[in-house]
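If I may wish for something, please walk me through the protein I am sending here so I can picture the backbone:
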Amino acid sequence: MTLSVVVSGASGFVGRAVSAAVLDCGGSVIGLVRRPQTAGQGVHERVIAGDDFVDVEAALPRDRKCDAVIHLAARVHLMRDTEVDPLAAYRKTNVDGSLRVARAAHAAGIRRFVFVSSIKALGDSDPGRPLRESDEPGPTDPYGVSKLEAENALLSFGEETGMEIVIVRPPLVYGPGVRANFLQLMRAIAKGIPLPLGAIAARRSLIYVENLSSVLIECATNPSAPGKTFHVADSLDLSVTELARMLTAQLGAPQRLVPVPASWLRLAGGVTGRSAQVERLIGNLRLDCTRAREVLGWNPPYPVEQGLSKTAAWYRSAY
């Protein structure tokens, strides 16, 4: 079967990778974008000019068969949000906007909707073991709250209409083209800036963007996927120190990781008003991906070492 999908956020870091993976499999992609000529080569672009997908219905095809929507577009997590009411802003895009896309897709006859949520819908740390899909949600910020509300709203929509809803909760995604905190970490390491990351034992799940692309395609096609939520991550959870050391080696940078105890970092976070950021650094956040393996038969095709190597090679060539 030739896969035909609609990818929202097709011009973004993950959207470009997912689109390329579908095309590599011989499939076709309709990419929903905000500006023309921003998606990858081979993607059929449909421009969504309005905010929060208010005009999405006109962009979805009714003249050709599509198998699924992979919904990536979102208001992303911001460390310093300037909105007066951040939760309302997140809800407009992540809840209301996602439902608009699902309704439009259903009206266009598209049978499946793969919603890329976030592990932050459950929380920012694990309870001493990897997080399972059945764990009680406890999102700690407006972004996580909005993602959880979107999950619930979409599952209800699926029950009402018969549309096949699949929820995917990745952790931090990395790979060529990555931005935000991961890019800042690589920049600091490449510049040889001493970092207080030499003694952090906390392990945090990550997912290489091509691993995420592979499981999203599986969720768009596997008959066992609908109605379920899946945690997805690389096959190995690195400690923060291990991650920094591996990136240092891949970037060919000097090893300047200072072994500062986690308790000292926690104290410094309290003094500087950055306790939340420090806790994300020194706390465990691991995902249990058993369901994806058992239900979908999915295992990450790329080991973490290969993902970090490709990411570092991209950084060296781009910067």
Summary: The domain at 4-175+205-237+285-302 is CATH 3.40.50.720 (Rossmann fold). The two ends are 40 Å apart (CA to CA). The longest strand covers residues 28-33. The chain has a mean pLDDT of 94.
